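Morning F.,

Quick status update on the modeling queue. The single chain you submitted on Monday has been processed. Sequence for confirmation:
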Amino acid sequence: LMRPYIQTTKYKGTGYYFYDLNAKANYTFSDKDRIFLSGYFGRDVFTFKNKEIEFAIPWGNSTATVRWNHLFNNKLFMNVNSVYNDYNFEFDATQQDFNIKFYSGIRDYNLKTDFNYYAHIKHEIKFGMDYTYHIFTPSNITGSSGDVEFDPSRIEKKYGQEAGVYLQDKYTVNKKLELNGGIRASYFEALGPYKKILYNYSGFPSDSIVYGKNEHIKSYHGIEPRLLFKYSIGQHSSIKGSFNLSKQYIHLVASNGTTLPTDIWVPSSGKVKPQIGYQYSVGFFRNFLNDKLETSVEIYYKDLRNQIEYKEGYTPSPNEDLEESFVFGTGNSKGVELYINKASGRFTGWISYTLSFTNRVFTDLNDGKTFPYRYDRRHNISVVASYKLNEHWTLAAVFVYQTGIAYTLPVGKYFIESSIITEYGDVNGYRMAPYNRADLSLTFEGRKRKFIRDGWNFSIYNVYSRQNPYFIYNSYDGEFLNDPVITVQAKQVSLFPIIPSVTWNFKF
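Structure tokens below.
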């Protein structure tokens, strides 16, 4: 699909395509009962090839949801959701005579029930429960080097179940003060089948423990309180503040040594503790022009515990015990958010700007010194504008800017005793170029006919054809076994220059 826009002689064989399928249906059984069905299936595939390296990165997500709405009376309302979700990611790379294949995924089966109870004019109460069964494939790796193949005999999977109950009350104290307090009790259990490797003091495998299907391995639980307040100052201004404590039992682990999207999801276990976050925020909100223009300024701070990263210099390999590749530390995030929104009139739109600092401190990384998180976006700007020309035509524009992601750059390679040793610089001490682009669109909405309403959208993606970095790879000039000096050069690969498109949509 994208080859006409990104194809060059230098990168012949490079391409990108995607497809999405959405389906929705609903049925009203009575005045008090409705059923909603929805499904989504999407797949993206990126391929890259030049004279030095070639790889393919397919990833996709599938979801199916059944939702039941039930109205008990004019004070009590219920939502029941049953959700299936499956995400997977693959990476297949070949460089000279070396090949590596990487697969990761997570599959969830979720059941959630939520109640809204309007007990009193001053009290809006929400409560509910949820349950999720997780199936993880954190990292399955196969590879080959020449005639030697590395292929694990089985795909390592991990299993877990998660549950929670919650209660919250939105309480209008008086005309000026509004409180919203809540509490959630959560539980997570790691389950078999699983083979746990035991290590001796020298760090070598010494024994193992085998857990059967659905056998208990490790469990965690916790209480998660939250409190929000809103205090009105006059008719158009208010101050809002919040505090919440959260526990996260599944973790996103990012590989700082590469800019490729190879992040994986792993569950809590005996070694991997739940992540804990304490978040505080306060903001000032002010409306102008008879509430047509909304503005706000918010500051926030997050204290993060039990954060997870790969060990310094980590390289994925077949038959590895993934948990032995992790190190643990703390982190924090702080920043300020500015927001302006015009939601009515022919001209609408909003502008947001966030200045944030997200850092990590790990005893076993970066000599114990603070380093930025991979997804620390120091500056984040979004501008959205829409102008309704008439009843049928609307002109819109979007601009986004983000600081580039942080990553760890190799600064040298050495050939010592038949082994290639890589030396890295400071952890996440380098950044990719900032991401920015502008989009334009013109939308036509047709008149509603008896059974159908259709429309057209004409758009231009990345109007000024910004070469935003998709990833960076290292190019080596020379051969490790034959040349005394190897020149290493970081090269950027970009996707999606200016792309025009035409879309026809219809509803019936």
